[in-house]
Write a structure and sequence with these properties.
Blueprint: E1 29-32, E2 45-46, H1 52-57, E3 66-74, E4 86-92, H2 97-107, H3 111-115, E5 118-119, H4 122-125, E6 126-127, E7 143-146, E8 149-150, E9 153-154, E10 158-163, E11 166-167, H5 172-187, E12 194-198
Length: 216
């Protein structure tokens, strides 16, 4: 029996009100919507790995926040390198750090980070209603995140992100940057070795061949 949990969205304004739900029993699936981060906290506990239990529970235990990184693209000399990404710090309010990292990536850089050249095209690429079910007051989450899964197939060390909303690409450059941002953001956790990114319809992001090679 599959159980799912969903995170409520508050646009690009708040993360403190994220709702917590359950995931599939044979591999945790999290869903999330874009959210901004809270104020910088000095006493954050660094997180270097993500466990299935913590992502399923999604609840902080004993500490106020958890230090993670989110990887954005950046305007500058590295423009020609589509896979170049740059880390900024975020503080997750729960142990569901992989989901929070993805939510923060979709939310995008802060105003000061934008002024410094950081950017992502991911937020503007997602549009339309969410295909993921749940009791969401504003229409559903932006993505699902499954640990130890390559699509529907169990595979240790692989995380699968599937968008719940329509992804509209501006071209191969956008796809390459979005792929690099998501991959780096999730691979900061030592037990995520590979990342698969799927569109709302379940196809590999940016796969022009139609063969869905990312699932093989």
């Amino acid at each position: 029996m599959n159980r799912h949990r969903f995170f409520s969205a508050a646009g690009l304004i708040a993360v403190a009100t994220l709702a917590l739900f359950l995931a599939a029993c044979d591999g945790p699936t999290q869903t999330g919507s874009a959210a901004t981060t809270g104020a910088t906290q000095a006493a954050a506990v660094p997180i270097t790995s993500v466990t299935e239990q913590d992502e399923l529970a999604g609840q902080a235990s004993g500490a106020a926040s958890y230090l993670i990184k989110v990887y954005f693209s950046r305007f500058g000399p590295s423009d020609a390198n589509l896979s170049a990404v740059f880390a900024v710090n975020r503080f997750s309010p729960s142990l569901a750090v992989a989901t929070f990292a993805m939510q923060s990536l979709i939310a995008g850089p802060t105003l000061s980070e934008r002024a410094a050249g950081y950017f992502t095209e991911l937020n503007s690429a997602l549009s339309g209603p969410s295909a993921c079910n749940g009791s969401h007051p504003i229409g559903g989450p932006d993505f699902t995140l499954s640990l130890n899964k390559r699509g529907q197939k169990t595979e240790q060390g692989t995380a699968t992100v599937q968008f719940c909303r329509t992804y509209s690409s501006a071209g191969i450059g956008t796809d390459a940057r979005v792929t690099a941002e998501i991959t780096a953001t999730l691979r900061q956790f030592s037990n995520i070795k590979n990342v698969v990114i799927l569109t709302k319809s379940g196809h590999c992001l940016g796969d022009e061949t139609g063969k869905d090679t990312c699932l093989k």
